[in-house]
Amino acid sequence: MAGSWKQKYKHARKPSSVPVLDDVLEQYGTMKGSPRLDEMLRIVKEVYAETDDLSIRQLRLFGEFDAAAIFLDTMVDKQVINEQLLRPLMAEVSPARLEKLRNRRLIDIVLSEELHEVNAYAESNVVPMLQALSSGRTLLCIAGSHDAIVLQTRKVEKRAIEQPQTEQVIRGPREGYIEVLDTNLSLLRNRLQTTDLCIKLAPLGQRGKTRTAVCYLKSIADPTIVDNVLKRLMHIKTDAILDAGYIEQFIEDQPFSPFPQIQNTERPDKTAAALLEGRVAILTEGSPFALIVPTFFTQFYQTLDDYTERFLIGSLIRMVRLVALVSSLIFPALYVSLISFNPELIPTDFAVAIAGGRAGVPFPSFVEVLIIEGSMEVLREATIRLPQQIGGALSIVGVLVIGQAAVSAGFASPIMIVIVALTTIGSFATPAYNSATALRMLRFPLIILGGTFGLFGVMIGVLFIANHMLALESFGAPYLSPFVPGSWQGMKDMFMRGPIWWMRKRPSHLYPQDSDRLPPDSARIPMERTLHYGGKEGADRHE
Predict the structure, then answer these.
(1) pTM exceeds cut of 0.85
(2) 440/316 same-domain check
(3) Does a structural domain hold residue 514?
(4) I need a surface site. Which of 261, 348, 457, 477 has the fewest CB within 10 A?
(5) CA 514 to each of CA 189, 218, 220, 314, 519: distance values in angstroms, whole numbers, following the listed order
(6) Do residues 4 and 52 share a domain?
(7) Distance (Å, rounded) from C-alpha 315 to C-alpha 379?
(8) Are residues 355 and 267 in the same domain?
(9) 439-485 per-position pLDDT tens digit
(10) Closest CA to 376 of 416, 337, 430, 344
């Protein structure tokens, strides 16, 4: 399976001066393995001349045939090598068995009869041998054979599966992805135990060769979207993929837009739900995040809690979240425009209170808001980067002490502190960090427009943002779907979370092959009155 989609989409590559292989391996091209053991060892030592963790264990197979096991100490499970490779292959055999070994191809006997508990295959080309060695596998080179046996002995330390730190829920699963791709794929397969789940594997990066997986449900996902994802991945030409964020920046439609067009998640249950809608997931080695495409803006303020709770509670929570999202974007700009240009729109008593609070503040409201908002962004960044034990204390000091000192010194008004606090809390209520960051970024242009043109400038800024979002697409799907273009079925899960039995169709703008989420004859289980509480006697009492 590995590399199959790379061969299929080979025509999508563009000419490039960057070599496909490592500079060291390029000289070997399509060179075949040598039957001389000393020649194979010379090639390995030449390639890994400056690598101190290279180990070469020379041995005699069955006490008769020269061979060598080659591996990197820091990436292999030495117990597997000793117990499942060296011990059975170095055991003495009977003369009859030895004669049989001489008369047959030795590498075939080793693969089919001796290696029972470790995955292994034969490789004839030098470059794949060396790349397998770099990925943590073990090479078994046998004198007289052009092929080498590649054994799966990779062992890399990994952290335990735990609740994702960026997507915590009140009610729902507590497991999240880790940095090992195989573990992440097993978590996803555990959620979708079906032959319909397709996983295509291939390495990305000219030197890093980072394994990347593209996952989708073949009976649901639109083949056009799948092909689009695979072609975009094929155009990635860089040294290595160190995180899923690298892939996101290479394949998104509008890289200069502040709004994220690809969703990321640490949750396998969220990934499974996306695949069931007809989306495509991209996972990569070394990253605990999965990328989900295509993506709509509505996905960034939805959480798992919306669906695990009853729909009335989920709808209420979602509406509160939407109010917080809008307020985090326009509150400071509205404050500046009303104070500077349209004070007549403020109730008299409230206007008097604001004027009293601003007495002695040396800055106009426009400058005051920019200074306080900028200070909050610096404080937020400092809180994130500091150690956890210190970060919490710094946030308390920043909010209480610095805020109170700013008001006492006449540097800012009390109402300004309240506005900034509400805005900050509203941005924290947005579940997706990258979407909340986009809104925080757009807050400053709106403040400038509100301080320059008043409410008219705020309206112009909001219209410009809306127009920009209308123009965005994610892998061919409109960014504001299902609102634009309108889809009544999709709007059941947009502003409010409708009952699950109402959402019978998958999102139409994903063009799923199977559009029915629920069969046409399905219905909610009807409520029936219980007429007995203790068998027949209870029923009689009820009557």
Answers:
(1) no
(2) yes
(3) no
(4) 348
(5) 20, 10, 5, 27, 11
(6) no
(7) 33
(8) no
(9) 889 999 999 999 899 899 999 999 999 999 999 999 988 999 888 87
(10) 416
